[in-house]
Amino acid sequence: MSDRDAYIALVSSLPSSERLFASKLPPLSRLRLEMRLSALTPDDQATLAQIEDVLRWRSYAMDVTSGQAIARAKKLLVHLESETLRHIVVERLDVRTVIAALRLRKQGNGPPTRPWGYSRFTRYIAANWTDPTFKLGGRMRWLPNAVTLLGQQDPLGLERYILDVTFRQLQRHAGNHLFDFEAVVIYVLKWNIFDRWAQADAYAAISRFEGLAQAALGDFADLSLEEV
Fold first, then answer.
1. Within 10 A of 35 (CB to CB), how many other CB atoms are there?
2. Do 192 and 30 form a contact (C-beta atoms < 8 A)?
3. Which one of 48, 65, 185, 219 is most buried, by most CB atoms within 10 A?
4. pTM of the model
């Protein structure tokens, strides 16, 4: 079987990922996904691993510095041959950098002077720090809503919204790639969005349960659930 035929078979075997957030769980487990991804060539497997390494938060250790994260992103973009995949990575890094800037500003910080994000707009953001959307609202139509959600103290709503934004970015590229390596990468990145939302939703459910339990404990409210 040729690589092209193998990739057609691989993409055809993947469950639909169109209904974002419609299910509590990703459309298939990571183990089953990895089994299907074994059909990729070694070079493509390595490239996919690099992309996930840069874009997936869990890939970063707690003590990783901004400089190290930036260097990782630069290394990936230098070696990516696919223009589509470069666009996808750049778009995601733009979103991540803007959200980081919004959170820094909300905490009362001024414009960063040291390396803090990897984006086409880092200097522009710093130069327009006091503008609600860093004067990027016209280029990033989703940004005003993100600012509103952040101001409403709704972290789960903000996370869901940003995941939806990144999903729609992937959708725009998916139409041009049906049975090639780019299509596989797009699917895996969508899977990661499903997985991230499932985890965030579970964490929120645990937090709500703990709040109700603490209220019900009354005089014993100082005890944590871990201590019970």
1. 12
2. no
3. 185
4. 0.83
